Request: fold
Amino acid sequence: MSTTSLDNPPRDAQTAGPAPSRRRRAKPGTWRHAIRRDWQLYSLAILPLLFFAIFRYLPMLGNVIAFRRFEPGGSIFGESWVGLRYVKMFLNDPSFWTVFTNTLILGALTLLFCFPLPIVLALLLNEVRNRRVKRFLQSVSYLPHFLSMVIVAGIVMQMLAIDGPVNQIVKAFGGEPTAFLQKPDWFRTIFVSSEVWQTVGWGTILYLAALTTIDEQLYEAARMDGAGRWRQIWHVTLPGIRPTAITLLILNIGTFMAVGFEKVLLLYNPLTYPTADVISTYLYRMGVESSNLSYAAAIGLFEALVGVVLILSANLISRRTVGTSLW
Reply:
């Protein structure tokens, strides 16, 4: 008679039992693996994504009223379908094309002056060797960017008033005081000048950061080849910051039609409408003041489509000619 000892259980009994649970690990290189590894960093993007979803993408649903008749107090998506009625209205409106022309001219002048001047200022600041002087110049040039648009408009109005500093200088040289802000011919000059003063210093930050990434050995090689400072800037510095410059140029072209609404609204008046009125201020008057929201939505949708075409075209041309693009 054979007995099995309790102290030595069978091998099957030793191996029997619940199998350990195995977690399915995400494969390296997948988005799940990236999120699991860097979830703290990705969590920082939640608030910006919510901001864009709520305040940028969700309002796009309201563009439907460009094709529907909207009545205050009714449905936010309009009452009845009217098709392209409002599109035909602004295409046949002479005042719209005047506003459209003003937007193109102001946008072109702003791009012409406000895009290259930060590059020039960054190159000049890069040549300053005294660190204290360089920091002082940077602080002075950055300061206008932090001023409220209302304060900037107030400064411009005070400077150009009949009894302001500019007219005092004109009188000192024997000229007659001029109401600059009431002259349509002066508005574009005033707008672009104030835009340059406010934005050029801030625009140099990215270019100064890009200058720090240029390899110093390139400058040494250029000096050994006999290149002076101008040759070094042309053949080493400018190619080094070209990707940054092209990226900012594409972004500026994308916002070409969105000429500064706040500054124009604060500086213009009915006397300067012929040269100062732009699409954004025209939309404000049509939509908010006249309560013609469907008509304003149609114009805003047209402006957005023009901006999309501009940024896609600029990106395509940049990729084919220079080899640098946003995507």
Notes: The longest strand covers residues 68-69. The chain has 17 helices and two strands.
